[in-house]
Hints:
Chain A is of the alpha/beta class. Chain A has helices spanning 14-25, 68-76, 88-95, 152-160, 219-230; strands spanning 3-7, 29-33, 45-48, 82-86, 102-104, 112-120, 136-143, 147-149, 164-168, 188-192, 198-201. Chain A has a single domain (3-230), classed as Rossmann fold. Chain A is built from five helices and eleven strands; from the N terminus they run βαββαβαββββαβββα. By secondary structure, chain B is α+β, with helices and mostly antiparallel strands. Chain B is elongated, with a radius of gyration of 16 Å.
Amino acid sequence: MNASVVVFPGSNCDRDVLHALGKIAGIPAAPVWHKDSVLPEGTDLVVLPGGFSYGDYLRCGAMAARSPIIRAVREHAPRGGLVLGICNGFQVLTEAGLLPGALLANSNLEFICSPCLLRVERSDTPFTNAYPEGALVQFPIAHHEGLYFLPKEELEKLEDNRQVVFRYAAANGEAGAAYSPNGSLNGIAGIVNLRGNVLGLMPHPERASEKLLGGTDGLGMWNSIKSWLEGGAR
Amino acid sequence: MKFRARVLVSLKEGVLDTQGKAVLVSLKNLGFDVVDEVRIGKSIEIVLSADSMAEAEQKVESMCEALLVNPLIETGRTSLEAIG
């Protein structure tokens, strides 16, 4: 079981993810430079971390999505390999076409850095099998471009396909657009591809993986991945 | 031959333009009540070599597809001039 964490120029959550995977969850993890064109042998999980890859120039994630390592990620995903994009990593996955949609500037025009309640909409993915369906978790968000956008018809298709995995929620368990801190359509905070092996989300599970950081709800994601890779949750 | 291309990238209709919204509010605050809408895009200027105008156009078109424009949310309009 091995994880590779991609480092782009401007990534700034790569070390947090390496720490959460390696030190807390016990999943061996190593950094991979964006100019590498192959993933380290035996990579089961690739994480695209948060940050401001390439200074967010042109569009968030646009340049990173065309980097050499993403070509390797494109080969990894169809083989069933796991890919997790967090925050800027989610933006990279949409720009690369590995996930549908686009992330636009927050509707309130502000950079939002805040803890967020999320409802886990699916517990049958490699990333969320340790959470009960409908569970409420708290992960922090820290972004300026987190408004998930997809044209109406495609958005309906996304919902019909049950591709929404995390939705912004209230403490009473209600979730949806009304609870989007950033104007995200349908309250979408995280989605998977059809096959379920590529997940992108704006909130940061790695920042909710230790008591010291204010919460441990993110641990469920690492534990899910771990049991999936160990074969227990397949 | 050298060409200069200008690609005007605009957000598609129906896609929220937060920058445009902010500028609209500022213009109104400055007393420009006549303003109904503001949309902000970007202009990308590219100098390139090609054998003909048609080839230059086709090359810029591929650049738009490969990187410059995200067709889900944006449209691109290109104008070209020969610069020697």
